[in-house]
Amino acid sequence: MKGPDHAFVYAPELAGFDLSADHPFKPVRLELTRTLLESCGLLQPEQLVTPAPLAEQALLSVHDHRFVEAVKAASRGEKVPNAQAYGLGTSDNPVFGGMHEAVLGVAAATVTAVDLVASGQARRAANFSGGLHHALAARASGFCLYNDLAVAIRRAVDQHGLRVAYVDLDAHHGDGVQWIFYEDPDVLTVSLHESGRYLFPGTGHTYETGKGAGRGRSVNVPLEPYTEDESFLEVFDLVVPAALRWFQPDLIVLQAGADMHAHDPLADMSLTLNAMQESYRRVAALADELTEGRLVVTGGGGYDPYRTVPRAWSHAWAVLTHQELPEELPGEWLDEWRERLGNAAVNLPTTSREDTRDFAPVPRRAAISRRNRLVAARTIETLQELWSSEVDGGRA
Ligand SMILES: [Zn+2]
User: Fold this and answer.
1) Which of 195, 173, 167, 165 is nearest to 298 (CA)?
2) How are the residues of the chain apportioned to helix, strand and coil, as percentages rounded to the nearest 5?
3) CA distance 186 to 29
4) Which of 342, 297, 330 is nearest to 126 (CA)?
């Protein structure tokens, strides 16, 4: 079976991961993104791939079976003793009927994306419903129930024999993925995020560098709140290429959470779409350099669902497929969504890019950049010491 060169993994029911009407995690982001790409002519019907069903057993490759049983019971509407210990029924992770099936479906979509790329059926694949990076082995956390990323990465390692570099550009630390692979020699996790001193989940310090056989394979750059484009890209260049070139991955998985943007209401970063798009380009270039282009992209956070997320992810897909969004977004897309969204439609964007002059200058810019530079240097120094004992990420 030969799939498309670029696969956009999609099923309408992926938008079924709907935590509650007033929850900030909005599945409508997915439909806004897909329809925007289609109306721009950047997504062809043959690129849409339906996720293959995933056996529940796959969840157990990273999740504790008692946790999965608790989720299933809660999902069926049963009362679960100890629900709080599993992170269920909190304001971040409310319980809803059918949640087990819904999030198993998200994991199936990310696994499909990884399978397509790992098997050579597609060179690149995206699943923007995925990216639930906070889910821990035995606990739901931060809007994330099952860790689709970890399930898919585990599979890439165990079944396809690949070494995987995971790059997390969400505003929040990619803690779930990091901890699940903390002692694993075949998975490198790299997370750039707003410092845990200010933001959930509070981890992602420079000294979290991996353990045992995973030593030197966990990379963290905690950034200052209000970090802007230039400083973000500077830090990216200081850390990400060096880490990936040392590790020599076979596959890159990018978590493209869109909450580093200045308009995001849940985080405090000050990026524009320009830096986000540029960071996707740099990850894609690293894939061309190191993995023969093999790259899987997921979504993640992003709580400015109309104005920011659809454009961020459309730029990500455009980068993956060597295309560009048009300057002016299509009128038919705007008309359709103005009708569907009603009042919320005032936040729909009309252009694909942002003019940085529309963003108020951040006070203390120089101090923020200086501090980020120092932290990045500390991260890389700490790691280089660990890396010096292993050439080629221990591959040799
Ligand atoms: Zn986030």
Assistant:
1) 167
2) 45, 10, 45
3) 33
4) 297
364: left (phi over 0), alpha (psi -120 to 50) or beta: left
User: Ligand 1: distance of its center to the CA of 257 in Å?
Assistant: 6
Alpha helices for 172-308 (secondary structure H): 175-180, 229-247, 273-290
**pTM for the predicted model, two decimal places:** 0.96
* Chain-centre distance for alpha carbon 304: 16
Residue 3 alpha carbon to ligand 1 centre in Å = 31
How many angstroms is it from 97 CA to the middle of ligand 1? 24
Reduced 3-state DSSP string for 75-86: HCCCCCCCHHHH
Q: 259 C-alpha to center of ligand 1: Å? A: 6
Reported as a single tens digit per residue, the pLDDT across 194-215 is 999 999 999 999 999 999 999 9
Which one is catalytic: 134, 193, 261, 315?
Answer: 134
User: 134 an active-site residue?
Assistant: yes
Residue 164: its H or E element: strand 164-168
Cβ–Cβ under 8 Å, residues 249 and 242: no
CB contact at 8 A, 3 and 279: no
Residue count (the chain):
396
- pLDDT tens digit sequence for 280-339: 999 999 999 999 999 999 999 999 999 999 999 999 999 999 999 999 999 999 999 999
> Amino acid identity, residue 65?
H
